[in-house]
Amino acid sequence: MSGPMRRPDAGLPEAAAHEIPTGREARRFDGQTVIVTGGASGIGLAAARRFAAEGARVVIADRDAAAAARAADGLRAAGAAGAAGAPCDVADEAQVRACVAEAVARFGRLDVVVNNAGLMVVKAIPDLTADDWRRVLAVDLLGAFFFIREAFAAMRPGGAIINVASVHALETTPQAAAYAAAKAGLVSLTRSAALEARARGLRVNAVLPGAVDTPMLWDNPNVRAGLEVVDRAAVGTPDDVAAAIAYLASADARFVQGAALVIDGGRLDRLGG
Ligand SMILES: NC(=O)c1ccc[n+]([C@@H]2O[C@H](COP(=O)([O-])OP(=O)(O)OC[C@H]3O[C@@H](n4cnc5c(N)ncnc54)[C@H](O)[C@@H]3O)[C@@H](O)[C@H]2O)c1
Predict the structure, then answer these.
(1) Per-residue pLDDT reduced to its tens digit, 24-49
(2) Domains contained in the chain, CATH given
(3) pTM of the entire structure?
(4) Is the distance from the beta carbon of residue 90 to the nearest atom of ligand 1 less than 6 Å?
(5) 3-class SS at 168?
(6) Which among 26, 83, 207, 266 could bridge 75 via Cys, Cβ 3.0 to 4.6 Å?
């Protein structure tokens, strides 16, 4: 291993300037079509930008139609080969089917799906309702399943699916029961889907981010109230996760199947104190 040794509590290495290389070697997705769910904000938007910078045509599938359209406009203005906003609630089977059909009709093929849309309900167990559970499971777990099922039908061999889970799938904190269970379910679904994907020439993998600098992190009511203190030195950028997603989607990862890649700057080791 190269690079200086760091004390474990010294924070993250200096963030690299997030200049995306523009050489031919960095255009791993030329001619490909990528759907990013929840692509209008945070990690999804960073992934959409990364795929576009590497040559892909990108469909931003988001429940927030206006934000999805704005994000697609931004990608086109930055020189994307193609970009479209697709209003889509991932929890709605019919909308997912329509989104995949629209992507294929518009761009001719589907190569990558990033199941990134997610939400978190922060409540103690006595306060969690059945509706809270249904909402979280419907978006964070079933939504990914709906897209995987459609992608299996639409993708040609070489296609890749990346599920955005969370370190909460492995170690969690109080007041995150539904979210942690949904993300653990998503890691399990990744394994199951990977088994069936292999025979189709497809790959399915997951990333498990730690704390990442997005609205979801700072909107967490416990973080806002100061009940959960987030050490800023241990917070990653959306680009940190996007880079890992792009790797798993690329031919560089052709031998990576069913993996659960933790992207957390070492935070998992410290969760739970
Ligand atoms: N930010 C973190 O610290 C962190 C850590 C671990 C995992 N994650 C996961 O990363 C993913 C992205 O989170 P983020 O932090 O970028 O959040 P974010 O709130 O910035 O963005 C989430 C996006 O998903 C969209 N969305 C929500 N529900 C949807 C639905 N039903 N259908 C379609 N789109 C929907 C929202 O409109 C928004 O554009 C989530 O799955 C989240 O659980 C985030």
Answers:
(1) 557 999 999 999 999 999 999 999 99
(2) 28-270 (3.40.50.720)
(3) 0.92
(4) yes
(5) helix
(6) 83
